[in-house]
Amino acid sequence: MNNALTLKRLVCEHCGAELSGLSDCITFQCETCYRYFIITPEGLKDIAVYTAIGEEPYNKQSLHLPFWVIEIDRNLLRKEIEGSLSELKNHKSTIAKTRLEKDPEDETDSLSLNFHTGMEKLNIMASQRSIPGSREIEYLISTMESFESFFIYIPAFISRNPFAYLKVGKLLTGKQPPFKMEKSTLPGKPVMCALQQDEAVELIDFVFFATLPPSILKYGDFLNPISLKVSGAPRLVLFPFQKRKNSFFSLIGEFSISPRLVDIKN
Predict the structure, then answer these.
(1) Where are the domains of the chain?
(2) How far apart are CA 52 and CA 148, in angstroms?
């Protein structure tokens, strides 16, 4: 078997121009025809890059950070919520019907019986799983159904902080800000994207659960079987930020993040 490593030049598949980019980025923009490409395990592929446009105009020279914008299937999520709740209620009902009675033919002394019965009670109590109340369920459902669509935002920029994706993704996902998208075709630097689409999809559960309040997060048995499903293809979107004092201020969603969370390449 020939295991020789083959090196290929990165060239635009449309005009043949050589692609130049940043070493840590997996995206490129052709300097001739301005098309975007992304390196995947299968090779170089075209990718559409969008720019987020907010309700207020902003300086086009603002810092643009890439995010994977992923719409979730709310119908499937509701079914998973209802299924998890139903399973917990059935479990609780089974425990409630359990009777601890002495077998008439059991000749063990009362001390042994009390110890045995006590251990059974402890085991049953330990197996009980907490169930969220109607207020928590209503909050969880209304959180995703109060918008026309519900998106999970996964940061795709380069970061040396492993928690940056969770921290920043939580902020945009919690805000669900209104914005429009326009396809980006203007010449400029390559998009600072360091995260593959499938890697972003694997993070949607973590980011979504991070937006929930402690009053829901404490019901681990309820949340554990719930997994979000994607509706439609994820999109790579550039969001505008401005440097303000010692932070990057998001012009869409209006929140600030520490510059230490973003590794900007010039």
Answers:
(1) 27-75+151-261
(2) 17
